[in-house]
Amino acid sequence: MTLTLPTPASPLKIGTRGSPLALAQAYETRDRLARAFALEPTAFDIVVIKTTGDNRAMIDADRPLKEIGNKGLFTKEIEEALTSGAIDIAVHSMKDMPTEQPEGLTLDCYLPREDVRDAFVSPAIGAIADLPEGTVVGTSSLRRRAQLLHRRPDLQVVEFRGNVQTRLQKLQDGVASATFLAMAGLRRLNMAEAVPATPIAPEDMLPAVAQGAIGIERRRHDTAAAAMLEAIHHAETSLRLAAERAFLAALDGSCETPIAALAELSGGTLQLRGEVLRPDGSEALTDAQSCAIEDGAALGHHMGQALRARAGQGFFTL
Ligand SMILES: NCc1[nH]cc(CCC(=O)O)c1CC(=O)O
């Protein structure tokens, strides 16, 4: 098969959300494709798509996202554009992606993973341990809230939403004394140095499934897109995400459940750590196991099922 490459007259349409981070991820994807095929940036169109999750009227309210209905909140409109042909590929934060894709769409291309860690962000305080009793911490992540309260039940957690810039402004305004951000987002925005952020070791706060990974979705039968994406695919990231996403799927995890997992490769082995917590942080269940690097999905599946059995009925409800 000969591959017909995009040209300025018929550019490859790259769909993305419009936040600064989403745009940075779309540009990174475009630049990697351009380099792989020696194309000019003009052979690509970045198409910004507004999603339900970007709708200010809904998001600026103080309601937790889970009450608005989380599933596919940031992906539905983008996937519709993909299906209709309005775009050719879609760039996503894998952390926000459901474990199954709609009929006709495939998500099997990953870029090299960024820093997986969470960052503790505070203008005045250096670490969680140094927070005075009763301090207000902002986060809208159920996982981070549960992990924080598990270690520090005395703290007060308030809802904290919006993009990176919005959240930093809220800290400046004194809405909370500290928050958490993914290191990956800060690095992709070139903000890691400009923000009072301290990376947290995974031992202290296990990251979200797929944190720091970018995935690129396409129409299943679009062989041209498939061939192009193959050239920028990162196999190691794929092996790690296979384990973490199987873990999430086995737990039936929606974004409404505090779940964390991290797979790492070393010396021909895959190590998977997983954690589930009660939403109020009163209990955390963890597991850690190793397997051959190609068996991550099976390990993730079994670890997820085992933790679900240990958790039992009612574990995830307050
Ligand atoms: N849920 C929002 C979201 N989705 C991906 C990232 C950061 C980048 C990444 O983890 O890949 C963020 C923001 C954050 O958690 O700070």
UniProtKB/TrEMBL annotation:
Please give the residue positions where the record annotates the modification S-(dipyrrolylmethanemethyl)cysteine.
255
Give EC number(s), comma-separated: 2.5.1.61
User: Any keyword Magnesium?
Assistant: no
Co-factor requirement = dipyrromethane
The catalysed reaction is: 4 porphobilinogen + H2O = hydroxymethylbilane + 4 NH4(+)
Respond yes or no to whether keyword NAD is given for this record. no
Extract the Pfam families matched here.
Answer: Porphobil_deam, Porphobil_deamC
**InterPro entries with a match to the protein in the record:** HemC, Porphobilin_deaminase_cofac_BS, Porphobilin_deaminase_N, Porphobilinogen_deaminase_C, Porphobilinogen_deaminase_C_sf
Porphobilinogen deaminase C-terminal domain location is 240-307
**Every Porphobilinogen deaminase N-terminal domain range:** 12-225
**From what superkingdom does this record's organism come?**
Bacteria
The UniProt note on the cofactor reads as follows: Binds 1 dipyrromethane group covalently.
Q: What GO molecular-function term can you cite, just one? A: hydroxymethylbilane synthase activity
Q: Which BP terms does GO give this entry?
A: protoporphyrinogen IX biosynthetic process
Task: Note the subunit structure.
Answer: Monomer.
Q: What else is known?
A: The porphobilinogen subunits are added to the dipyrromethane group.
Give the record's family classification: Belongs to the HMBS family.
Role:
Tetrapolymerization of the monopyrrole PBG into the hydroxymethylbilane pre-uroporphyrinogen in several discrete steps.
UniProt name for this protein: Porphobilinogen deaminase
